[in-house]
Amino acid sequence: MNLRAVEPGDIPRLKRIHEEFFKNDFAFPDFVNGFICAFLVEENGEIITASGVRTLAESVLITNKSGNFSIAERREALLRMLDVSQYICQRYGYDQLHAFIINDENWIRHLHDYGFQPTKGEALVLSL
Fold first, then answer.
1. Phi/psi class of residue 101: alpha, beta or left (left: φ > 0; alpha: ψ in -120 to 50)?
2. What is this structure's pTM?
3. Whether 71 contacts 63, CB under 8 Å
4. Closest by alpha carbon to 57, among 90, 25, 79?
């Protein structure tokens, strides 16, 4: 098995693999642009698997949920945070902003109201 970087000439073969096995699961990733590194494993010139590492924009938000602020004030603060977060993402070339909500259905509903959508698949993390 040979491990090597993805090269532009690999893209047509990778697109065929994606079309055959993953076209209904996710859009074909642009391994040439937007990745820190993209690589593949091949055997006798045939691609077994390809992968890449790209950065992910994540919004981390801490909100004071005490009775000191009304729901309207907290909503306005959230909207301001989202405006700035979207601007920063666009400024640095990100096409997605992720938020991971733990045990708060109200915030999930608010974020849905402002355009956030569930991700495809289950979000997993590998701590290094």
1. beta
2. 0.77
3. no
4. 90
Q: Identify the pLDDT of residue 6.
A: 96
Q: Count of H helices and E strands in the chain?
A: 3, 3
Distance CA 97, CA 82 (A): 9
Q: Rounded to whole angstroms, what are the CA distances from 75 to 18, 54, 67, 113?
A: 41, 31, 14, 11
Instruction: Give the model confidence (pLDDT) of 92-107 as tens digits.
Output: 989 899 999 888 898 8
Give residue 73's identity as a one-letter amino acid code.
Answer: E
For residue 69, give Cα distances in angstroms to 60, 61, 82, 110, 118: 20, 16, 18, 16, 28
Task: Describe the chain by its helix, strand, coil percentages, rounded to 5.
Answer: 35, 15, 50
Under the banding of pLDDT at 50, 70 and 90, the label for residue 65 is confident
- What is the rounded average pLDDT of the residues 54-78? 90
Q: Is the pLDDT of residue 33 over 90?
A: no
Domain ranges of the chain: 2-53, 55-128
